[in-house]
Design brief:
By secondary structure, this protein is of the alpha/beta class. It has a single domain, classed as Rossmann fold (3-Layer(aba) Sandwich). The strands form two sheets. A five-stranded parallel beta sheet has the order 2-5-1-6-7, sandwiched between helices. Strands 3-4 form a two-stranded antiparallel ribbon. Strand 3 and strand 4 form a beta hairpin. The chain is globular and about 55 Å long. The two termini are about 20 Å apart.
């Protein structure tokens, strides 16, 4: 993970945690935010709370987010820094926003069980499992951000999540120290 100069004088970095649904984005993001005294921004919750969508996708059973409205809503927060943003997509966020992009990955059999227990069926289940098999989120992240800030992290177990949180906490601490020098 890269340690970069502070964009626009931010005191804390912005981290994007992305991955297929069920890989542990929200759990990891909330734990990282707590461990680093940063703000957790769950984009899915923000979309629902603020109505930042343009309808409902019947096949995938989810809101169709309005990417422009989401970016407008987040712009000021992102300029401040200190955000851990949690969302399953990443290609619409401005590249300048993030200092680290984490792609969580989960073994397909584990992911299948997680998604099934959430009630995913049919195309919604199949599409998400296929996304993970073909590493679509990692490819999207690498296509949208500088490769030196994109990191894939295994997220199969509680131990993996703990290790990921510890790694990210250390990275944030190094980033903050580098800004103070």
């Amino acid at each position: 993970m890269a340690s970069l100069p502070s964009p626009a004088g931010r005191r804390k970095p912005n981290i994007l945690v992305t991955g297929t649904p069920g890989t542990g984005k929200t759990t990891t993001s909330s734990l990282v935010a707590e461990a680093t005294n940063m703000r957790h921004v769950n984009v899915g919750d923000l979309v629902k709370k603020k109505g930042l969508h343009c309808g409902w996708d019947e096949d995938l059973e989810c809101h169709i987010i309005d990417e422009d409205l989401v970016c407008d809503e987040l712009e000021d927060l992102m300029q401040e820094g200190g955000n851990v943003v949690d969302y399953h997509g990443c290609d619409f966020f401005p590249e300048r926003w993030f200092d680290c992009v984490v792609v969580l990955q989960t073994d397909n059999s584990i992911l299948y069980d997680r998604l099934s227990s959430r009630g995913y069926t049919g195309p919604k289940l199949t599409n998400n499992i296929e996304c993970e098999i073909f590493q679509m989120m990692l490819m999207e992240a690498r296509g949208s951000y500088r490769e030196d800030i994109v990191v894939a992290m295994k997220s199969d177990s509680v131990d993996d999540i703990s290790r990921n949180v510890s790694t990210l906490r250390s990275w944030v601490n190094q980033w903050v120290r580098a800004q103070s020098s």
